[in-house]
Design a protein that fits this description.
two-stranded parallel sheet, two-stranded antiparallel sheet, globular, 49% helix
Length: 257
């Protein structure tokens, strides 16, 4: 077995620049065959200049599936941080426009205020309103009560719905790995993954995969808004997805970090 990392599809964010649109999001997140095809792609980095090349795999060669699961609220928080840290354009040119962007970014640094504005901007995108056509009736009603980052919540729920539908279709063994468990005992999680893959554990080469620092993000969400976000997730999630996320207490509509 060769462990291959893919991000499947449907997770892109529409910032209004044309690089991601409703079709890119909805097609793979509402059709298992589209999702299956997208899961068989990955990113290859060339030797010169870090150029990215999209490559395709034969999806029928897969034998086992590892699913990484994380609290949806923390996924949103992480995507916001990635957005703030991933700026690589010329927004800080030495003119009035550059100064304006610099001041805006200072105001929107990775904090609760910045996260709220980021979510508000996404929720006010034209595509956000269009995507309501694929929400359940109950979900639409809830969004009318101003659910923060509702498009992100919908995407996360549908993404995992597709994961578990695909696993059932393939009838392959799968392992659910929880992001938070790496904080508690990273080596136990690595042992679990290695055992599932039937890999040999080379003890002297094993090292912690990452370190976490600072706030876990729990203070970045207003409790009442977080409850609505989790309620929306629960409305859109299939029974298999609900079961996988049951450790977070979603069935009770309470935020758990």
């Amino acid at each position: 077995l060769i462990l291959t990392k893919t991000h499947c599809s449907g997770h892109c964010i529409d910032y209004g620049d044309g690089e991601c649109n409703v079709k890119d999001i909805v097609n793979p997140l509402t059709d298992v065959s589209n999702y299956f095809e997208a899961c068989a792609s990955g990113t290859k980095f060339t030797m010169h200049g870090g150029y990215e090349e999209i490559i395709k795999y034969n999806p029928w060669l897969s034998q086992k599936v590892i699913v990484v699961i994380r609290n949806p609220l923390m996924i949103i928080y992480s995507r916001f941080i990635n957005y703030m840290e991933g700026r690589s354009d010329d927004r800080y040119v030495m003119n009035a426009k550059g100064m304006k962007k610099w001041c805006e970014d200072l105001d929107n640094m990775p904090n609760a205020k910045g996260l709220k504005k980021w979510c508000d901007d996404l929720d006010n995108m034209p595509s956000s309103n269009t995507m309501l056509n694929w929400y359940k009736k109950e979900s639409k009603a809830l969004v009318g009560e101003r659910v923060q980052c509702h498009t992100e919540i919908w995407k996360i729920a549908q993404f995992y719905n597709m994961v578990f539908k695909l696993i059932k279709f393939l009838e392959e063994p799968h392992l659910e790995v929880y992001f938070e468990d790496y904080d508690v005992d990273p080596f136990a999680q690595m042992d679990k993954v290695l055992g599932f893959l039937e890999y040999k554990d080379v003890k002297n080469l094993k090292a912690a995969p990452w370190e976490t620092h600072g706030n876990d993000g729990s203070g970045f969400f207003d409790t009442n808004k977080a409850v609505k976000m989790l309620k929306l997730f629960n409305l859109e999630a299939t029974e298999d997805t609900k079961q996988a996320f049951s450790r977070y207490g979603f069935e009770h509509g309470r935020p758990s970090f």
